[in-house]
Amino acid sequence: MEAWIQQLLTWLALPQFGLSTVFVVALISATLLPLGSEPAVAGLLHLNPDLFWQAILVATAGNTLGGAISWWTGALARTAWYKARRLRHAGDAAAPTNPLIPTAPPNKQSRHQRMARIWLRKFGAKACLLSWLPIVGDPLCAVAGWLRLPFWPCVFYMAIGKFLRYLVMTATILHFWPS
């Protein structure tokens, strides 16, 4: 098993694949798909320690682009949701009769949902600094899009948070797993 892992890490660290692999894994892990990119970054750096800053910057770029995709996903979902709602309320004959399309926003939100919405509106784009957090970070980007928080400031704050995460987590992993 250890030989297989070493062979995989060696393949991923090849100059023609290493940084591009980190970019793709970081991008996918920033969407709502469950995937962690830190092992790919740490594996590349374990085999090529000279690529530290390049790997951190490439992973940050990929992860930030994935966060921007999540922001747009949230914004487009909101547009589609409201369009379907307007069609249904207008009584349009062409309105979809799909029972999965809501006719109105939920009347009762949980206390946590109300608090999250208030918190996001209060802090605005700066809330995207927390997009690096596990479990809640990726949905946070989508919610920022749903709430129509300004796109470029959100991306800016996402990039800062994600850069700091990669810097700290990669340095920590390399400290406890030296070459």
UniProtKB/TrEMBL annotation:
Keywords attached to this entry: Membrane, Transmembrane, Transmembrane helix
Source organism of the structure: Comamonas sediminis
Keyword Isomerase: no
InterPro entries: DedA_domain, VTT_dom
Boundaries of every VTT domain copy: 52-170
Listed name of the protein: YqaA family protein
Membrane-crossing segments per the record: 12-32, 52-77, 123-149, 155-177
Keyword Membrane assigned: yes
PANTHER family attached to this UniProt entry: ALKALINE PHOSPHATASE LIKE PROTEIN (PTHR42709), INNER MEMBRANE PROTEIN YQAA (PTHR42709:SF4)
